[in-house]
Write a structure and sequence with these properties.
The chain is an alpha/beta fold and about 270 residues long. The protein has helices at about 65-70, 110-115, 115-120, 125-140, 155-165, 185-200, 210-220, 250-260; strands at about 10, 20-30, 35-45, 50-55, 80-85, 85, 95-100, 170-175, 205-210, 220-225, 230-235.
């Protein structure tokens, strides 16, 4: 496999037309009894419709804070976020979230867990039930619809959580270290599954991860953040063809890009 030229993007790339997510001069400082704790310095980033962007950085650099700001779960100190051109002041309807823990309700079946957003939003059950069934098939959970979370493996639980985030057909999916608690082999399978889901649904996905190989394998662009207070250190295009296979992780293009991303942290031993 010939290694294509890697491109380091010095600034957030303007999206063609209106971006799915637009982040402008975004900062966050947490207030505490011991004083202010800066989490994010000004962040500027546009994410295109249908794009898969991964954010990597050391622990405590503000990656999860960035996701919560985009999701409208917390408010910025300054600057702002717009989703589909609309300022985020509360959780948008067009956003689904997947956390590190699946957070499935033990007393509800897989299907009823997946259908929860439909119930909460009081959406039409019949049409969304058909969508839930299609997502279950895409995620490889056919035959487990009536099982309970405790009857599933960790990877299957996380796949159910991804289906739940997609069932109300959001334009954007935010994922905060969704595979961090999984073993290495299960994590690789989940990466393949997520790539398939992204290909079939065409959703805009923002993934927070500590794994450099995972970010390169999945993303169209990799955003590298600095230590706290978090800022964007670099943005890399990922010029690998899709669909991607696990064998590509040994290809020169893959290893070179992973090396470049890792170089931002290697000297400090901050990641992986």
């Amino acid at each position: 496999m010939t290694a294509p030229k890697l491109r380091l993007v010095d600034e957030a790339r303007p999206a063609a037309g209106r971006p799915a997510i637009s982040i402008k001069a975004l900062t966050k400082t947490y207030r505490s009894a011991d004083g202010d704790v800066p989490s994010l310095t000004p962040i500027d980033l546009d994410i295109r419709d249908g794009e898969f962007v991964a954010v990597v950085g050391p622990s405590g650099c503000g990656k999860s804070t960035l996701l919560k700001l985009i999701a409208g779960l917390i408010q910025p100190t300054s600057g702002g976020v717009a989703v589909d051109g609309k300022p985020v002041v509360e959780p948008p309807d067009d956003v689904g979230i997947v956390f590190q823990s699946p957070v499935l309700l033990a007393w509800r079946s897989v299907l009823r867990n997946i259908m929860m957003p439909v119930e909460v939003r009081k959406l039409d059950r019949a049409s969304h039930l058909a969508r839930a069934e299609a997502l279950i098939k895409t995620a490889g959970l056919t035959g487990f619809e009536n099982k309970y979370p405790w009857q599933l493996s960790g990877g299957m639980q996380q796949r159910a959580a991804i289906c739940r985030a997609l069932v109300h057909d959001p334009k954007i999916v935010l994922m905060d270290e969704p595979f961090g608690a999984l073993d290495a082999l299960t994590r690789e399978r989940m990466n393949l599954q997520l790539q398939r889901i992204h290909h079939e649904t065409k959703k805009t996905i923002l993934l927070i991860t500590h794994s450099i190989p995972e970010s390169v394998f999945l993303a169209d662009r990799v955003v590298v953040m600095t230590d706290r207070p978090g800022a964007i250190a670099a943005i890399y295009d990922v010029p690998l063809p899709r669909p991607r296979t696990l064998d590509m992780m040994g290809a020169p293009a893959f290893t070179e890009l992973a090396r470049q991303v890792r170089s931002h942290f290697y000297a400090q031993g901050q990641i992986d």
